[in-house]
Design a protein that fits this description.
The chain contains 8 helices and 4 strands. It is elongated and about 55 Å long. The termini are far apart. Bound molecules: zinc ion. Zinc ion binds next to helix 7.
């Protein structure tokens, strides 16, 4: 035990944080946004003199301008929804995923995967449902208190079969929540 400097319950231990960073490195996904990706996106949005040097870059720029917005006042990168009524979501770089999930999971008083994923995905862009599940499985408080253990929306008696079911639907649900890839999209003019 090291002397804790705060009274808050530690949701994700430093071991979990390290494990998650390794997990992200070993499981790259175009729906996450690295710090470099973020810089490129911001450059396309804010630098009118930057010209695309290839058809691919041209498509990328068009897609970025349609998908993201730079909020000058708050210096925040936002993902724009498909329709004007859709809420603008803050773009989270992969180094910030743990903090965002931790805060959402704390605010919803340790609800399960589905509820936490809903909270995260309605306000943030760049986090995968599988990232939320990876982290919630290692929540220290949920691990101590069985009544707070993450549950899915359905009450399957076998957690194992639920796990595999969730993994099978991850892609579908990511798309459902508009968390689609931004890098691999090739669009015509
Ligand atoms: Zn928890």
């Amino acid at each position: 035990m090291t002397g804790a400097t705060s009274n808050n319950t530690v949701i994700f231990s430093s071991r979990t944080r390290t494990a998650f960073l390794n997990y992200v490195r070993e499981n790259p996904n175009n729906r996450r946004v690295s710090q470099t990706d973020r810089e490129i996106i911001i450059e396309w949005l804010t630098n009118p003199s930057k010209q695309p040097s290839s058809q691919k870059e041209f498509s990328r720029r068009n897609y970025v301008r349609k998908t993201f917005a730079w909020d000058e006042d708050t210096q925040t990168l936002l993902a724009i929804g498909k329709t004007s009524e859709d809420k603008r979501r803050t773009v989270v770089t992969d180094d910030m995923i743990v903090d965002v999930v931790e805060s959402a999971h704390e605010q919803n008083d340790h609800l399960g995967w589905d509820a936490t994923w809903r909270d995260v995905s309605t306000s943030y862009y760049g986090i995968l449902r599988s990232d939320v599940i990876f982290l919630l499985k290692q929540c220290q408080l949920c691990a101590q208190d069985p009544s707070k253990r993450p549950k899915g929306a359905t009450s399957k008696s076998s957690r194992q079969s639920f796990d595999s079911e969730v993994l099978q639907t991850i892609n579908t649900r990511d798309i459902q929540y508009g968390n689609e890839e931004w890098q691999s999209v090739e669009e015509g003019p």
